[in-house]
Structure formats: structure tokens, C-alpha cells
């Protein structure tokens, strides 16, 4: 399958080990000396409408990409384990 970089952007990334959604591809890192794709980048989500900055960007090496489909990209690395899971607190008990 031949794909353009523009088509690769905005595809949903799924971690095949945990089944979690990692995010959407926002950027691609290229090695200009060898003309190869080195990694894909998922920008960090803004915290509190961007007033408190944003989370770190997630960089996925090209070697960790298992499959590129029409709408999704499957990866074989456990990216979500690096981040703390969100805790939901109840206001009323």
C-alpha cells in the first residue's frame, strides 16, 4: 500500500498490547540524509484549555508501528503505561 504523508496525518493510533487509543498522528519526523521516516508524533493534549500548558508529546518510533490501515495505525509499544491514568472523583457521595 502506497500512502502519502498527508494521508498519514490525523489517523488514529491504537496500542495493540492494551487496546487503548493513544491519539491522532499530528506530525512525522523524517531523516533527510536517508529519506526515511524515523517516527510519528502525537501532540500532547492541552490542560485546562491551554492555560496550564499541555501534556508531553508522544513520539512513536517507526519500528514500533505494526500496521497502517485506512483509518487507524496499530503500534506494538505500550505508550499509555508512561502516563498516569485519569482519576474520576465524585462530587456527591
Description:
- This protein is mostly beta strands.
- It has a single domain, classed as SH3 type barrels.
- 4% of the residues lie in helices and 34% in strands.
- It contains one helix and seven strands.
- It has a four-stranded mixed sheet, with no helix packed on it. A three-stranded antiparallel sheet has the order 3-4-5, with no helix packed on it.
- Strand 3 (27-31) and strand 4 (36-42) form a beta hairpin.
- It is globular and about 40 Å long.
- The termini are far apart.
- The relative contact order is 0.23.
- Residues 81-88 have low confidence and may be disordered.
The CATH topology label is: SH3 type barrels
The fraction of residues in strands falls at 25-35%
Unreliable spans: 81-88
Number of domains: 1
Number of discrete helical segments: 1
CATH class descriptor name: Mainly Beta
- The CATH superfamily turns out to be PRC-barrel domain
Extended strand count:
7
Order of helices and strands: HEEEEEEE
Biggest sheet overview: 4 strands, mixed
Q: What is the level-2 CATH architecture name?
A: Roll
What does the average pLDDT come to?
82
Strand order of the largest sheet: 2-1-7-6
Q: What class, by secondary structure content?
A: mainly beta
Task: Map the helices and strands.
Layout (H helix, E strand, L loop, with lengths): L4 H4 L3 E4 L5 E4 L2 E5 L4 E7 L15 E4 L3 E4 L3 E4 L18
Parallel strand pairs: 1-7
Antiparallel strand pairs: 1-2, 3-4, 4-5, 6-7
Amino acid at each position: 500500500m502506497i500512502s502519502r504523508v498527508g494521508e498519514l496525518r490525523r489517523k488514529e493510533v491504537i496500542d495493540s498490547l492494551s487496546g487503548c487509543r493513544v491519539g491522532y498522528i499530528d506530525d512525522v519526523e523524517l531523516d533527510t540524509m536517508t529519506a526515511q521516516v524515523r517516527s510519528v508524533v502525537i501532540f500532547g493534549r492541552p490542560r485546562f484549555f491551554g492555560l496550564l500548558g499541555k501534556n508531553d508529546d508522544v513520539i512513536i518510533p517507526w519500528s514500533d508501528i505494526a500496521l497502517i490501515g485506512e483509518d487507524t495505525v496499530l503500534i506494538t509499544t505500550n505508550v499509555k503505561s508512561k502516563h498516569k491514568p485519569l482519576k474520576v472523583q465524585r462530587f456527591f457521595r
